Amino acid sequence: MAKTALLLIDFQNDYFQDGMWQLVGTEAAAGQGAKLLAAFREKSMPVFHVRHEFPTDDAPFFLPGSEGAQIHASVAPQSGEPVVLKHQVNSFRDTELKALLDEQGVEHLVIAGAMSHMCIEAGARAATDYGYQVSVAHDACATLELNFEGKTIAAADVHNACMAALSFACGRVASTDELLADL
Questions:
Q1: What CATH number corresponds to the domain at position 70?
Q2: Could you give the 3-state DSSP secondary structure of residue 51?
Q3: Per-residue model confidence as pLDDT tens digits over 113-148
Q4: What are phi and psi of 182, to 5 degrees?
Q5: Crossing angle, helix 155-169 and helix 121-129, to 10 degrees?
Q6: Predicted model pTM
Q7: Which domain holds residue 11?
Q8: For residue 119, how many other CB atoms are within 10 A of its CB?
Q9: What's the number of domains the chain is made of?
């Protein structure tokens, strides 16, 4: 069986209620992420956290050194769980994430976090490109509504389109409970 690790991406305060860039369903997604986190910890399986900070204070959220850029308490890292700081959408770009995963012999990633159509998708695609097996916990991810050519695309539709694309091209997309049953 492939060595599996949990990768929690950008569950940060600014994406939650009263944050600078609140997503739709972040609390529910983080609750599912917390279930995954508890199970991985219980089984002493590796856990990696990623958090995003923009490099300057003129960003719309995740300001450098801000409380909003910190990992939400519901999925906060424990001692010994690596926290990778990124400045790009892709968690692997210009970070030590791949080296940390490879040091631990990780072959399979279970991914959860935010935003579905940005950092989750970019991370899952990059992980696939690097040869990792990828599973995305669709109910442990959140996003927001988007606008395109004068039309508003509901957050659920943005999320579902992203998950459909990942399922088609990158790996398994399943519920938290389905993924937990496989551990």
A1: 3.40.50.850
A2: strand
A3: 999 999 999 999 999 999 999 999 999 999 999 999
A4: -85, -15
A5: 10
A6: 0.96
A7: 4-181
A8: 23
A9: 1
